[in-house]
Write a structure and sequence with these properties.
The structure is a homodimer of 382-residue chains.
Chain A lengths: L5 E6 L6 E7 L2 E5 L1 E3 L12 H7 L3 E5 H6 L3 H6 L3 H5 L4 E5 L2 H6 L3 E4 L4 E4 L6 E4 L1 H11 L3 E3 L11 H21 L6 E6 L5 H14 L3 E4 L8 H13 L7 E3 L5 H9 L4 E3 L2 H7 L2 E4 L2 E4 L19 H5 L2 H9 L3 H27 L3 H11 L8 H6 L1
Helix pairs in contact in A: 1-14, 6-7, 7-8, 10-14, 10-15, 11-14, 13-14, 14-15
Amino acid sequence: MLMNNFTLIRRDNLTRARLGLLDTPHGSVETPFFMPVGTLATVKALTPEEILEAGGRVILANAYHLHLRPGVELIRKMGGLHRFMHWDRTILTDSGGFQLYSLADFRKISEEGVHFRSHLDGSMHFITPEMAVEIQEDLGADIMMCLDECLGYPATRKEAEESMRLTLRWARRCRRAKKTLDRALFGIVQGGMHADLRSQSAEETREIGFDGYAVGGVCVGEPKSSMMEILDQTLQELPVDRPRYVMGVGAPEDLVECVALGADMFDCVLPTRGARNGLLLTRKGRLSIKNARYASDESPVDESCQCYTCKHYSRAYLRHLYQSKEILAMRLNTVHNLFYILELMQGIRESIREGRYAEFRREFYMHRRQESEESTMQAISS
Amino acid sequence: MLMNNFTLIRRDNLTRARLGLLDTPHGSVETPFFMPVGTLATVKALTPEEILEAGGRVILANAYHLHLRPGVELIRKMGGLHRFMHWDRTILTDSGGFQLYSLADFRKISEEGVHFRSHLDGSMHFITPEMAVEIQEDLGADIMMCLDECLGYPATRKEAEESMRLTLRWARRCRRAKKTLDRALFGIVQGGMHADLRSQSAEETREIGFDGYAVGGVCVGEPKSSMMEILDQTLQELPVDRPRYVMGVGAPEDLVECVALGADMFDCVLPTRGARNGLLLTRKGRLSIKNARYASDESPVDESCQCYTCKHYSRAYLRHLYQSKEILAMRLNTVHNLFYILELMQGIRESIREGRYAEFRREFYMHRRQESEESTMQAISS
């Protein structure tokens, strides 16, 4: 019953990095890859053609958001999400577990499902694991995610265990609810920052059997070292022959490290939301374009970058647009950041293919300056 | 001393419409044409490539805005406005007369010039006619406008006359201040809604001698019929062998009428600002994309339109983006509206070339519905 959708092409000798090929109804994609976030059926500020040009092949959309607006029934009537948003490549939809945790004004979790209040209009909604799968099937997603309970940080061991157990019971229900044969469904490993709970979650999620496995509940406020320890362990406990997806990770250094731990898929708002807040990613590190030092800087964001923004515009112009709150600022910044991240992923894939990932990783750090101008969290939370 | 920058190609038999060619340091452009407004060195939401693709060849930037932010000295250092904003076609800069009237928190006009308070930070500034020309020369504009006093509506005859006389004295000073030989300077006819004052202003502005002539002080709140009467008269009093620019006009029906009266150049925020407010221009009239009737409408904005937006997106998707306040909504709407207006101008030029402008104008009205969903003023003032 499981899909035969993933082929391992090559494994790195010095790290656990791997090059793979993921087949989906809307194309085959080499892993490891990064998914630009297109929450509301649009990757903010860009057209589908621009995402393709930047190297994007898979986008992530949010079932939670689309369920609330414009509604899944509407999108189904319009021929599905791909047609609605003019994107004919792969789409992964998040089930809403994380959004229920981070966005809903009110949520009440029971065995049956989640009652929650819409962050848009305060209306009450109820969602079950079965409904979460049905919604994603109606959207026409290529890759669907189980409904999970996303636990905050910190959490007691008892909370983490109960939550993990509930997520497992929901995972079984999601698995049974799936009707489509050509779409993939991924299970999500939870368990907070507790190594043994993560192990149990990984083992039992494997036993249920999914087309791919995600690590959820990271990047929720825990220290970076805890996150990397949990990922290090959990990724080793997932099947070798299935794609492994680290949810919510997307800072350049985290991508490089998680790939070394054997992760295949990523998504994060950092490159896009950061761009809209003036945070630009470069080979040398981050820069904040609002900084007065760029007011008359004729150089591009990144001298070595071949993106549209770097080919045609100076930092001075980008700063002017940003200060003036111009829409073009958000566009040009987003084009650059996505190009940077997707080119980084391409470099990662090529270096694994050529058996030199450890070297690629060393060079990545060599290029970077000691300090970034602005912390990532600052830029993506504002 | 005046430039030989305008060639009449053809005059219509039944109307006063004319086809011409305007030469500028950044290309020759056929008239009549419409200039997308790029106030702050960006046509809001679009890249230069998208403006070109929509058919735009001349954009309008605002010396007033650029003087305040990021400053003309900075743009000069960065190689001028063309290079700064990555637009290598023609740029016309408005002097700031209209912006001083509509935007400044405070303005005090004397013979010497205008004291005003910046709408951005409340700082005090002083500008003279000579400075207005120098600023525009520093920006590197292809076509510069004299500093004028833009009169509000209504105004007494005495106010209108005094203001018109001041504008004439300033026009003489602008003419003397101009240093560049290859850049054009246009005079602006004022005089409020008083036919005799408009005549005097046109005559004396002609006597000073400019590379082109604009009609200012229209679209400032007067009834449409008064505006058309004044334009009808004033355009006839301007030299046949010079380009005539009607400032601030850009509603489709006004473009068609003003061309029939012999106007050659236009600018207006309507297509771009309207787009950002959900107002879409079509052959059949206007539509407001926020209207619930489009929620599940699979058709494009305009069935007959070949723009990127109409080729790939449904009204339902555009409505969803607009309701969700997505940046892509502003982009796709702006792409469509500019394409529509610039294609209309192309149709106007072709029909004059082929001696069938009166017929084109008849057909234009035949396509339109009786009523628009929303008034133009509503959409561009919100």
